[in-house]
Design goal:
Length: about 55
Amino acid sequence: MNHTFDPIISLDYGNLETPGVQVELDPDEAESLGAFEEIALSEADAWEANTDIEGE
């Protein structure tokens, strides 16, 4: 038997580690909690990497 459950939605940060609870955050709140880590190259690094292409 396959059961599906609707998640419990919360706005309380205290529920972040509670199993079965989804905490809704706006993008600024999520970023302040470390949810996003920028790993993209800078434009200068991308252009520099472009010069490493062999055979052109």
